[in-house]
Amino acid sequence: MTLIKEKTKIKEQDPKKRIKNFHEVALGYSLEDALKEASRCLQCKDSPCIKGCPVYIDIPAFIKLIKEAKFDEAIKKIKEKNNLPAICGRVCPQENQCEKFCVMGKKFEPVGVGRLERFVADWEIKNGIKHPKKTKPTGKKVAVVGSGPAGLTCAGDLAKLGYEVTIFESLHKPGGVLVYGIPEYRLPKKIVEIEIDYIKKLGSEVKTDFVIGKILSIEELLEEYDAVFIGTGAGLPRFLNIPGENLNGVYSANEFLTRVNLMKAYLFPEYDTPVKKGKRIAVIGGGNTAMDSARTALRVGADKVYIVYRRSEKEMPARNEEIEHAKEEGIEFMFLTNPTEIIGDENNWVKGMKCIKMKLGEPDESGRRRPIPISGSEFPLDVDMVIIGCGQSPNPLVPEATKGLKTAKWGNIIVDENGRTSLKKVWAGGDIASGGATVIAAMGEGKIAAADIHKFLSE
Amino acid sequence: MHRIVYKKQLSESVKLFDIGASLIAKKFKAGQFVIIKIDEKGERIPLTIVDADKESGTVRIIFQEVGKSTKQLGLLKAGEAIENVIGPLGKPAEIKKFGKVVCIGGGVGIAPLYPQAKAFKEEGNEVISIIGARTKELIILEEEMRNVSDRLYITTDDGSYVRKGFVSDVLKELLEKEKIDRVVTIGPAIMMMVTARVTKPYNVKTIASLNSIMVDGTGMCGACRVSVGGETKFACVDGPDFDAHLVDFKLLMERQKIYLDEERKAMELFEGECE
Ligand SMILES: Cc1cc2nc3c(=O)[nH]c(=O)nc-3n(C[C@H](O)[C@H](O)[C@H](O)COP(=O)(O)OP(=O)(O)OC[C@H]3O[C@@H](n4cnc5c(N)ncnc54)[C@H](O)[C@@H]3O)c2cc1C
Ligand SMILES: Cc1cc2nc3c(=O)[nH]c(=O)nc-3n(C[C@H](O)[C@H](O)[C@H](O)COP(=O)(O)OP(=O)(O)OC[C@H]3O[C@@H](n4cnc5c(N)ncnc54)[C@H](O)[C@@H]3O)c2cc1C
Ligand code: SF4
Ligand code: SF4
Ligand code: FES
Questions:
Q1: Is the ipTM, as predicted for this complex, more than 0.90?
Q2: Taking the model in full, what pTM does it have?
């Protein structure tokens, strides 16, 4: 058999069309595509790809089952480890995870593990999801705070083990960043709903509109539950502390994306929540949040969108695919550029932005080369809206309301390697503990905590 | 789903609801608010909890119909339900025994003022209340305010009821005559700004409750940001109460106007549908 050097392409919506709609950009593999891609996997004995996956999916095994066209078994194999495969197959930064370690990738392109995972997950959705039988109840109850990937995973694993799990979510819809942050065109909300429904059917209840720390404290939860897992995420938007940030027309990426995704402002006035439609928009930052804001702004109707990023393309933390897609859609990247001031008109509206050029110096704590401003290189940028997408800090609401819960300098909850916090019977994981990572990393932490909660409660 | 168990019209555009929300009723402290979302397509709007009945498990809201969402809310009848009620949000007001407290409410701001005035009274303060509105029709909760105040002053801009003038006129006279330990002011931003200016020379600590535009109400989006003492704060989690002498009211007023065009459009469409 001849070796296929390149990853099988995934069908995508034409860039010219897709910037005018919110439908999914990547359309997924056909049956032929999936079989062809699966055939590229070498079934390596030591399967290095697995160690790149934070939840240790048996990658060669599920790919082998695809090769054999046993899709129902392939999805079962994946779900042994991952209850949200249709989500992960779409949003994992595979190039830094499973695919990074793929042997094929050393000489050629790595096997499209994520695309194959998505294929089988979608196959199951189309053909009817099988729900596993409920396990014998343990009689014990666990409360999970936050319904992002960390909370959902922890809940799912504990439910499978027979615990009665209640998930408390502050927003009116469960899913965390999956519903309020990541846009529809990248992760359809229907898919999120289906996968959350799966978690519910495993035996957990979701209570929305519950802001823990306000309506109930962690102490109060412990009166009713045998253990608590905190997965409240990194939902505190960071600003730059430059002049003009409170002008009308300056959004945090969180606000902009929440209005559009969660509140469906792109369907205003059918939906009641409005969002401003700038003509010329600058998005500050180089991560997924910035890419999502920029491409969403385009879809909401902007004429011109800039990504303003203070380092170079190489240092950008966003997924490769998002950067590629953003370029195809005509977003202009201004690398090594930093905003210094947002300028307002007499009515407090944005009318421009001042920027300065940067150069790269010595590596900083993060190992990336530190950007340094080049003096005298200031220049104006003609924009009427600015979106700040420079990352999030841990949400302080629960830590502030919980006596004795230890946090580190940036507000993240301190946990040990099993997710245990400084409080007895309280675990934490995901962005609230690690401070802004990935969907699958948050899921991995939810899993570890679930295993440790199980261990603790069976002692 | 949260049922409206009681509805009352307080003036042409101001309505009162008691809504079933037993946990919120149990937890509520004066100064806190709820965010409500009427239905699937609704926006999230913040409304102060005016009162709560722990026994029956209801919270009371009083709102003025100013735009599409509040108009739509006002059309709901007792027995009907609201999809989402989230709370209690925000920091509770600082209720202590200060001595002589002046509570100032303008227009529908009298509603969020009431629970604070009541709490100050229960704490043993001497409570002097000044409530005002454009015209007589818009003076709400007069009886309730009288019941929790040692003295109650009323002003109307047009002189149609009691005294013609602004709440700040009465405040100025009080400050001239007696020693006041604290002032709380809730109402339109312009009114709160003026009261803050009036109390400043007398060095009386003045608290304003800021009604900035909000989305989540949990500190996640930054829509509600206000500037206090030169620092950016989130009204939903750091407030809504702040030291009025440090608040940048001009910024608050500008930011309240962000969606004027969209609000107008939503309203026109909605009124068209209703006719
Ligand atoms: C715009 C954007 C795009 C991203 N794109 C990607 C991507 O493509 N791939 C990827 O791998 N990662 C991506 N990430 C990162 C990833 O989404 C996060 O790392 C991940 O969602 C973290 O999961 P979590 O469960 O810890 O928290 P979250 O997903 O943040 O969920 C936390 C949940 O807790 C709730 N909550 C908070 N406080 C309370 C409270 N007091 N009481 C009750 N509930 C509460 C929140 O409302 C939320 O629903 C992106 C992040 C953003 C913001
Ligand atoms: C903490 C807090 C407590 C409040 N308590 C009360 C109360 O007890 N009674 C009452 O009548 N009003 C209260 N408000 C104001 C109330 O939320 C707005 O009047 C309401 O959201 C208007 O919605 P609308 O669609 O009817 O009007 P719109 O047409 O949308 O807007 C009309 C006006 O309301 C303001 N507004 C719009 N959307 C919001 C929003 N999401 N958050 C805040 N303001 C907004 C706008 O600045 C505009 O000036 C409070 C606001 C805050 C922040
Ligand atoms: S979950 Fe993510 S990291 Fe794991 S195999 Fe799937 S795509 Fe790779
Ligand atoms: S490393 Fe690559 S080729 Fe080897 S088993 Fe994993 S996916 Fe297949
Ligand atoms: S309303 Fe979103 S942070 Fe306050």
A1: yes
A2: 0.95
